[in-house]
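User: Some background: our group keeps a shared notebook of sequences we're curious about, and every so often someone picks one and asks for a predicted structure to add to the entry. Today it's my turn. The entry only has the sequence so far, pasted here. Could you supply the structure so I can complete it?
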Amino acid sequence: MTTTIHLQQPLLPSEAPSLPENESIRQQDAGAAFVLESKGEWYHAGFHLTTAIVGPTILTLPYAFRGLGWGLGFFSLTVMGVVTFYSYYLMSLVLEHCEKAGRRHIRFRELASDVLGSGWMYYFVIFVQTAINTGISIGAILLAGECLQIMYSSISPDGPLHLWEFIAMVTVVMMVLSQLPTFHSLRHVNLASLFLSLAYTFIVVGACLHAGLSKNAPPRDYSLESSKFSMVMSAFTSISIIAAIFGNGILPEIQATLSPPVTGKMFKGLIMCYSVIFATFYSAAVSGYYVFGNKASSNILKSLLPDEGPALAPTWLLGLGVVFVLLQLFAIGLVYSQVAYEIMETKSADVNQGMFSRRNLIPRIILRSLYMIFCGFFAAMLPFFGDINGVVGALGFIPLDFILPMLLYNMTYKPSRSSFTYWINVIIMVVFTGVGLLGSFSSIRKLVLDASKFKLFSDDVVD
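Assistant: Of course. Here's the predicted structure to add to the notebook entry:
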């Protein structure tokens, strides 16, 4: 078997897929012309990628280590990081190749349909992508509402306000922010989001170290589940959590915001993003698991602020961390709403009239506000949405981020079946298909086990 890596071997013109997307058609597409306008630089893509991947979900990493232990936890975190970086890089190469062939794709669904030559793939991707993006938007509003509730409870422990009222407040703010017209217009918001992710991560790391070195340090136990079956299920649940944390499912839409030609720009954006990932993911996982072991909560802030007993770190510091998390959740909700907005404007806007013309502005305000109200309503109604998102993540992120990019690359560049690249891609697809199926099973199992805790419009978010 040879070890030649084919990363830049283009198709011959005669081998190019037969579904071209010419620029004249795109010029009549309001979703492309408005929401996905292409004006960005590589560092703007880095801001968008970082917001899409590095979010408050990293505070669940100590909990993920709890189901894996030190060795397997480090191994899984590292493998997921390497595989997703490789996966996103391959997808960027496929997008660059299509652009050079005169078919610049700005939507994941169009890329998959073109390269794989299958109409059903278009609908598969749009279904999975919509489920993921809507789920994350709902989750972001729910978590932001919970952050407000935490701050309110610390000031007024017996106050009359309920979780759903804080969710309503967040929804109103999101309705206003959702009127930023294009993905590119979020670049400054997402730069702030990048710094916020670094800020609250280092606050949490500092708080964990303070807790671990204090006289009230919790006892440390790193043992796994006693039952073999429970141990295996917990391990696959943890692997699914880590896979979902690394996922984004919108790389083609992010690459669409780059001004053409895009060659090499996304690679630089990925380097920026994964530099932040390295600084935040490992520090949060190690510090939280080191201090709390197998008692780590699914949100390490809850471990630092136990229901009983004093806070394990200065409350003002933890409060500042909660504020930073809250602010970043607005950016995350906006990023993952862009695919929905693009679909809406493709159908509702008139590209021949200005982006801010009355003809386009009024439908935009109404449709985006309704979308946010929809997400806010479900966030208030389902304060156990984290368990549902676990299933969505396993069934959604793994196909879009761990399987399709490898398949798209092999179909586009056609590396030799004796090459190292071809077999690495096949192995990744096979392994993560299995991980996705087992992760879905374990996530559904957790959903069933937690079902007794579910209560519509509850004041308590299911842990």
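Suggested note for the entry: The chain has a mean pLDDT of 86. The chain has 18 helices and no strands.
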